[in-house]
């Protein structure tokens, strides 16, 4: 990849960003469709987040992804939000057009497209921006019950209150940490934990892990799900691919070369 004066840039805003495979995946996608674009990691601290978002427009970026821990804070620095991002209160994709920053969220729809959500009893581990986006989308897709298990009890409670406001007819509550709720048939790990499981898994569950290991080896939750014989297992790279393809299409207006993106991740 050669970056020249005509190259359009897309960034990844987060803290940290060194672990992310998004640059590998997105740069392969840009090359596959012959776009002179480049995807670059941007290590941004919380106190510099507003300046970073303003800087995207000033520097002519086409957009950016937003990752841990900025997905909720960045909402306040977007000029406009799409419906999914507004409902979720979380943004992972920024599109810059004519100096205007549009916020979108592809995390939740990515997970919904990979599981059977309607009627599900869901346990979400974590209460950050990814958890918030996924929980909202699962409830929009018809999940019957949702329990939040978060290490930060105050943040978990705040997310629960937000979700109850949007979905007053659903059973939504928090659990202690680590969670003891045993009725879930859909588990989502939305924490960065890759080395140990946080709850026991059973064969009847669908398991989604938003986290992944850069070397492609199994996270603890995915390994435990395979050992338990869970009926549906979605690892973090599958989620990364799905949300990344949707982000690509928002930036470029082109159909994402999903096969190329998947091959880049597998390498």
List the SSEs and their pairings.
Elements: E1 8-14, H1 22-32, E2 37-43, H2 49-58, E3 63-66, E4 80-81, H3 83-88, E5 93-97, E6 100-104, H4 107-112, E7 121-125, H5 129-140, E8 145-149, H6 153-166, E9 171-175, E10 186-189, E11 206-209, H7 220-228, E12 232-234, H8 236-252, H9 258-266
Parallel strand pairs: 1-2, 1-3, 4-6, 7-8, 7-10, 8-9, 10-11, 11-12
Antiparallel strand pairs: 3-5, 5-6
Give structural attributes:
single chain, 267 residues, alpha/beta, Rossmann fold, 2 domains, six-stranded mixed beta sheet, six-stranded parallel beta sheet, 12 strands, 35% helix, 21% strand, globular
In short:
This protein is an alpha/beta fold and 267 residues long.
- Tally of helical segments: 9
Span of the ends, CA to CA: 17 Å
Assembly type: single chain
Radius of gyration: 18 Å
Category from helices, strands and their pairing: alpha/beta
- Indicate the mean pLDDT: 97
Number of domains: 2
Query: Percent range for helical residues?
Result: 25-40%
Task: Report on the architecture of this protein.
This protein is of the alpha/beta class. The chain has 2 domains: 8-105 and 239-266, Leucine Dehydrogenase, chain A, domain 1 (Rossmann fold), CATH 3.40.50; 109-234, Rossmann fold (3-Layer(aba) Sandwich). The chain contains 9 helices and 12 strands. The strands form 2 sheets. The chain has a 6-stranded mixed β-sheet, with helices on both faces. Strands 9-8-7-10-11-12 form a 6-stranded parallel β-sheet, sandwiched between helices. Helix 1 packs across helix 8, helix 1 crosses helix 9 (258-266) and helix 8 (236-252) crosses helix 9 (258-266). The chain is globular, with a radius of gyration of 18 Å. The mean pLDDT is 97.
